[in-house]
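Below is how a single chain appears once it has passed through the pipeline. First comes the sequence as given, then the structure the pipeline wrote out for it. We keep one example in the README because the format questions we get most often are answered faster by looking than by reading.
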Amino acid sequence: MGEPVDEAVRAVPAPPLRGLVGWYSGYRQRGIPHGRHRGLPSPWLTLIITLDEPLSMAGHPDPGAAPGDYPTLLGGLHLTPALIDIPGRQSGIQIAISPLGARVLLGLPAGELAGTDVHAEDVLGAGVHEVHDKVREAPDWATRFAVVDDWLLDRMAGGDGAETITPVAEAWQRLLSAGGRLRIDKLAADTGFSERHLRNRFRADIGLTPKAAARVIRFDLARRRLAALPHSRLRSGGGTPMGPPDLAGLAADCGYADQSHLDREFAALASCTPSAWLAQEFRNIQSGHHPPA
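Resulting structure:
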């Protein structure tokens, strides 16, 4: 069968792409247990370019979409998890794209991808196949990331240029900076919009309403902090977490009313409890990434 493989590499994009792209996450695993990964709601659109095998989607955020294999995948912001089958191996590059970068890099507003994930070529055209081939032929992670940089820089140069700072963009950035902990009525007032107008603009430009976006931002922060808590780490030489994490403290730190509130949000956005998610995902947590997230 060969030796197990467990590679996880994260990189920042080229300087002109920063702000439009959050990071690149490269992963290659072999000889891991068969399982199912939850692609959880987050404040980033997801673009995945696989390496050795396609991504096997068992369930989409859109329940009407059929399962299938995806050599490349593009997904918008969503409120329910995607389900990914992992048959003992997985590999690829995940690209985190800001909703504010969608028009520049993808050629359409993030709202047009809300709640869906699709074959990337359906949106980005046949050029995806070329970059997919180049990434697979590249000898190392640095070269693979450079291929993605060049491709996205070309798309940016051929698009509308840098993203214009709009009231919606400013409101989105304020929500991110506050960890989702802002009153929506104040956010609307500060933009000069009515709450209804801000809600409609957010749906079109971001893919979620301001209230839903705030929930996703706060949830994403909570689950990443959960992964980093000391009690989330494995016992030395063991295969289980050391003990229960401090969920009450986590809830307070992330702006939830109490642990029950945190539990309800995990049930709604992850379809499981925080402890169940941690138990299912701890191998990815320990390797420092969640491929694909």
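The two ends are 27 Å apart (CA to CA).

See the next section for the split statistics.
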